[in-house]
Write a structure and sequence with these properties.
alpha+beta
Length: 143
């Protein structure tokens, strides 16, 4: 089962400030306590991140995130492998009427590759979808 998503969030800061925060990858575990393991060098093309994500489900997701395209201060394109696999894209744009706000649009197409995520996706697709959306929505709120 593939999960396709398209999430848009309004962040109350200018795009350059949002990008600076995102570039501080060492801070990610302090923002996101559900990110149980995280290794990364930088927000640069060619870097590969290791992650263990613990959504409020009875398992953790282990994956690698390869940054295949990075264009400061507006775009990150990633290839994901491991328990889940596929692609993801983050686009940052200025909100015209927002007085220094930024719109963050995250799109992804991911597939569960390993048990138990694959089993959950087959047996209870709405629960798998909820866990997927929970990670994105919680990340935006905690950022």
């Amino acid at each position: 089962m593939e999960i396709s998503s398209n999430h848009t969030y309004r962040l109350p800061a200018p795009r350059a400030e949002v990008w600076r925060a995102l570039a501080g990858v060492s801070a990610y575990p302090s923002w996101w306590p559900w990110l149980r393991r995280f290794t990364a060098s930088a927000l640069v093309e060619g870097d590969e991140w290791g992650c263990t994500i613990r959504p409020p489900l009875p398992y953790a997701i282990r994956c690698r995130v390869a940054l295949v395209g990075v264009r400061e201060p507006s775009l990150v394109v990633a290839r994901v492998s491991g328990d889940i696999a596929g692609g993801a894209r983050l686009e940052l744009t200025d909100v015209r009427a927002g007085g220094g706000a930024t719109e963050a649009r995250i799109t992804s197409l991911l597939e569960a590759r390993r048990l138990p995520a694959r089993l959950l996706a087959r047996v209870a697709p709405p629960v798998a979808r909820w866990g997927h959306d929970w990670v994105f929505d919680t990340a935006a709120r905690q950022f």
